[in-house]
Amino acid sequence: MSYPVDRRGLLRAAGAGLAGLGLGSVLAGCGSSDEQSGTVTLTWWDYFTLDNFRPAFTRLIRDIEAEVPGVRIQRRTFPFADLERQITLGAVSGDLPDIAIIDNVSMNSLAGSGLLADLTERVEDWGQADQYYKGPWDSCQVDGKSLGIPNNSNCLALYYNTRMLDAAGVRPPTTWDQLADTAQRLTSGDRFGLAMSAIRTEEGVFQFLPFLWQAGGDLDTFATYGATALAFLDDLVAKGSLSEQCVGWTQQDVNTRFVNGRAAMQINGPWQLPTIRQTDVEYGVVALPRDQEAATCLGGENWVVMASSDQQDKAWQVLEYTQRPSVLVPFLVALGNLPARKDLADTGTWASDPALRLFLSQLPVARPRQYGPGYAAASQAVAEAEQSVLTGTASPSAVAGTAATKIDQALEER
Questions:
Q1: Regarding beta strands 141-142 and 145-146, do their DSSP bridges make them parallel or antiparallel, or are they unpaired?
Q2: Predicted TM-score (pTM) of this structure
Q3: Model pLDDT for residues 290-310, shown as the tens digit of each residue
Q4: SS3 170
Q5: In which region does residue 222 sit, left (phi positive, over 0), alpha (psi from -120 to 50) or beta (all else)?
Q6: 285: three-class secondary structure by DSSP
């Protein structure tokens, strides 16, 4: 990710100037305290900016301030696309929070930057690591260190329109062969059998990676298994079962086509359920169809503590408090999110809701995008490969080989 040189230079100059004036600690703004009251104010950053998130965060912060001794919270929100950048820029300006909730894929770039506090000893003393699903927990583990705590999770699954499948006399697919056959039989007129996002951003890569993993490969074997996954999707487009326009669709665009009846099936996440339930669409959700193995892609957020914080003990107390079942369950229910803790599988709305329970059941096979600091470049290579194949400008095998070279170079940064 690149930033304007003049802005970066300005931040460096500003940081240096303030440091020269002895104001560096003011810029840091981490863990300020009121010595007379014994109260510490922790700064907290996240990207949950929408109004419907506000009640859940208001309640959580109120409870933290009431239950964690001597803590006050100063929360600041950023747009989703800006939070990681602001943290990176904060390393230059000295303006960093004490704690933050970040997208788990951001661990790739931030984990190796030295910005995140090592929580390993605290986690070992806490003794609750085994209560988390493997994928979410692994997303916080870097070079043998615990650099965060999973807060919530999501993953991808296959939605289907029950009326359309019943009318076609087909059942929800469970394998690639069945997916291809079912998608073709459900394609009619301006309705495609399947919709998915293949946009040239992390959204598209998020939806492509399960196909790579299901084929039996990973980023380090992209030349072979990437070609397999790309060829499968290319065949869907060639047969008209998947629209070539998917190269420009976000996941929200995909869901819109599903609820409008222009797609009989879609690959998407649990965050689409509130929108679907406002319509009259009769739907079901099943695990992503598998090839050589079952796999889906892990999404969600992690709590992190900044290494620059002067109040890491208090920050850890806050993180620990947020993970108490009595606190975490109502918070996640209010947000419409799923837990990263497997010991909460039988509590909350996800315990009785069939669709949410399906997504929860897939967390054991949900893989984190944990590839190190070179992941952004590797992800870009994957996105470019998918775009080239699905728009018909290159063959899967040729593109996979070219992309594999770029991916290997990127992953060498690990």
A1: antiparallel
A2: 0.86
A3: 999 999 999 999 999 999 999
A4: coil
A5: alpha
A6: strand
